[in-house]
Amino acid sequence: MLLRPLLDLLFPPLCHACKGYIPIKGAEETPPQPFICADCLGKISFLSSPLCTCCGAPFATANGVDHTCGACLSHPPFHTCRSAAVLAGPLQELIHRFKYGGKMHLANPLGLLAFQRLEQFLGEAGGECVVPVPLHRKRLRQRGYNQSQLIGEVLGKKLRVPQVVGNLRRVRWTDPQTGLDAGDRVTNVKGAFAVRDPKALAGKRVLLVDDVFTTGSTLAACVDALRDADVAAVLAVTVARGLQQ
Ligand SMILES: [Zn+2]
Ligand SMILES: [Zn+2]
């Protein structure tokens, strides 16, 4: 009975976002994963229906039911995509610290958050392997880790599917997408990815994982390479989605 309070004293459950103490109601209760307090969770705009059934973009419909958006109707994408929440507030700060501040341990709360919010999509998607969006080896050396791979690891464990690293590769150095408009983003990453061993992925339902969806151009370039490798389907998942106003 006293174990829980003792553990809390030694290892207080703190919110990854605000560093505040997460109160535990019952003595036996374990702290709520993914260690983000109710206050911070309340400030995260989670994405929910109505969404585009293909690209996952939120858009208002009269009856609140999911539909295919105009862009996906005119150019049906090979893949479907979902993101857990809007890139803003505490989630944006968490991702920034995770990606640029060396806080690798934040992969766990971010991956769990994506898993919990996208559990239905992930369950129905039937992904047979996780493929993270790769970094160019120069960027990997600079950062020391691939943030998408760390999130992919969490998702793969939860879904009990293997993560395939090193097959989808970034074969060309690209400038950061930040600051580029949608058209330049597409040109910047076009042909930047390739699959080294297509046979290993052919016929598989691939769960493509990235941390952030901005315009979707990076994901689309990865999808092109995976489609060339004859995968059966690409189900893309990102933790956050930047919404263009
Ligand atoms: Zn908090
Ligand atoms: Zn769409």
Please describe the topology of this protein.
Layout: H1 3-10, H2 38-42, H3 70-74, E1 79-86, H4 89-100, H5 107-117, H6 119-125, E2 129-132, H7 137-143, H8 147-159, E3 168-170, H9 182-189, E4 193-195, H10 198-201, E5 205-213, H11 217-228, E6 233-241
Parallel strand pairs: 1-6, 2-5, 5-6
Antiparallel strand pairs: 3-4
The structure holds zinc ion (2 copies).
Quickly list its features.
about 240 residues, alpha/beta, Rossmann fold, two-stranded antiparallel ribbon, globular, binds zinc ion
State the gist of this model.
This protein has 245 residues and is α/β, with parallel strands linked by helices. Helix content is 38%, strand content 15%.
How would you characterize this protein structure?
The chain has two domains: 1-42, no CATH class; 78-241, 3-Layer(aba) Sandwich (Rossmann fold). The chain has helices at residues 3-10, 38-42, 70-74, 89-100, 107-117, 119-125, 137-143, 147-159, 182-189, 198-201, 217-228; strands at 79-86, 129-132, 168-170, 193-195, 205-213, 233-241. The longest helix has 13 residues, at 147-159. A four-stranded parallel beta sheet has the order 1-6-5-2, sandwiched between helices. The chain contains eleven helices and six strands. The protein has 245 residues and is an alpha/beta fold. The model has no long low-confidence stretch (mean pLDDT 91). The structure holds zinc ion (2 copies). Residues 15, 17-18, 20, 36-37, 39-40 line the site of one zinc ion. Belongs to the ComF/GntX family. InterPro entries: ComF/GntX_DNA_util-trans (IPR051910), DZR_2 (IPR044005), PRTase-like (IPR029057), PRTase_dom (IPR000836). This is ComF family protein. Residues 6-73 form the Double zinc ribbon domain. Residues 180-242 form the Phosphoribosyltransferase domain.
